Amino acid sequence: MIEPYEVVETIRMISSENLDIRTITMGISLRDCASPDMDTLCARIYDKITRLARDLVQTGESIEREYGIPIINKRIAVTPISLVAESSTGDCVKVAYALERAAKELGVNFIGGYTALVHKGYTGGDRRLIGSIPEALASTERVCSSVNVATTKAGINMDAVAHMGRIIKQAAQLSAGRDSIACTKLVVFANALEDNPFMAGAFHGVGEPECVINVGISGPGVMHNALQKLGAEANFSDVAELIKKTAFKITRMGQLVATEAAKRLNVPFGVVDLSLAPTPAVGDSVALILQELGLEKCGAHGSTAALALLNDAVKKGGVMASSHVGGLSGAFIPVSEDAGMIDAVKSGALSLEKLEALTCVCSVGLDMIAVPGDTPDYTISAIIADEAAIGVVNNKTTAVRIIPVFGKNAGDSVEFGGLLGGGVIMPVNSFSSRAFVERGGRIPAPINSLRN
């Protein structure tokens, strides 16, 4: 039974602490859309998406009105297009245009799944899809793309890692007039997940049902405010306990929205993703949570320990509040989307190397990192390889969403707009990784992958 004080508490969280549901994401299987003819494939994809998701936005809006819970985004994730278009002849970019038309027709802000899974090698369809990514992202607004280049079981496909460095540079160049914004919609994964509701990395995995609803919550502002009230004299046991209790409350709201949306849309409820997802709004920052624990700035020594505590406590509290927890479920540190992170970079407290260390203990990886436009493709590939190694060895999902902003240098400002935020161009290590990246082949799976 919900008590009156819980209602009042939730209203306060929403009105003054930036509590919201970050996304309702509908996953849709496109496996039955395959056709040897590309135009037929595109028509089937458009028809199926617009049929199954026709009520998605309206349902989200009606839940917002009835429960007073802000639902910021309504999104769609589809089967990796490299699989669906494998047998089709023609230009894969046509599929991106079909996805874009469907997204606009339905009113969703992003559609994910322009995806290839190449952690152990390429098929012909994978190569065609990956080669089309720069044009697809530069010529659409709502299509998101991801490529999985590594898993703990397979190791790291260094040929794909090298390829993605070049693809990212091409996408940046094709959208150079808009601060290389195409790269904000492209994620390179290790251990990609099938039920992730967050963009730009969401896709509908082959083990998922025909259609499903997954929900991603938010709540850094709520967490920050709760810790402010706890006071500086509290020890870390008290801090962890408060984070767990707060995460439970946030996740209960996500569970309510997820089950209600699934019921109204007559599709299965998949998962609630527990991730604390920051926004550029003042106070809605993971960095500020870390600073509330006693750090002068995010990036100071102790930041990794503080983030590890936060990430673990969020999972422990949230997992008891939902019948199905999945996705990434932790704390996000997307630099351009977190006002506290941006401030830490500007002050010199937070470097790319420290961010890499932080990704060892939190969700995802190097996310929304703007770097100089003249950063070599092999340097970008080496950054991807480092992040993939963290994921592979630690059996966790890691990713890189990096934006080499053409015409910009370290220290320059950049603005992507909306939830993508903006910030400052971060410097990268100037020493070359070219010979390392050009070796190619596969870095073998670690010994801890042999668990059978």
Describe this structure in words.
The chain is α/β, with parallel strands linked by helices. The chain folds into 2 domains: 25-190, Anaerobic Ribonucleotide-triphosphate Reductase Large Chain, CATH 3.20.70.20; 215-433, Anaerobic Ribonucleotide-triphosphate Reductase Large Chain (Alpha-Beta Barrel), CATH 3.20.70.20. Helix content is 42%, strand content 17%. The protein is built from 15 helices and 14 strands. β12 (413-415) and β13 (422-424) form a beta hairpin.
How would you summarize this macromolecular structure in one to three sentences?
With 452 residues, the chain is α/β, with parallel strands linked by helices. It has helices spanning 4-16, 38-52, 56-67, 81-84, 93-106, 124-138, 158-174, 220-230, 236-265, 286-292, 303-318, 339-347, 352-358, 377-394, 434-437, and strands at 21-28, 71-78, 111-117, 143-151, 155-157, 186-190, 211-217, 269-273, 325-326, 366-372, 398-405, 413-415, 422-424, 442-443.
Descriptive labels:
Anaerobic Ribonucleotide-triphosphate Reductase Large Chain, alpha/beta, 14 strands, 452 residues, twelve-stranded mixed beta sheet
Q: Rough shape? A: globular
Please tally the β strands and state the result.
14
Helix- and strand-based class? alpha/beta
Topology order in helix (H) and strand (E) letters:
HEHHEHHEHEEHEEHHEHHEHHEHEEEHE
Q: How many domain units?
A: 2
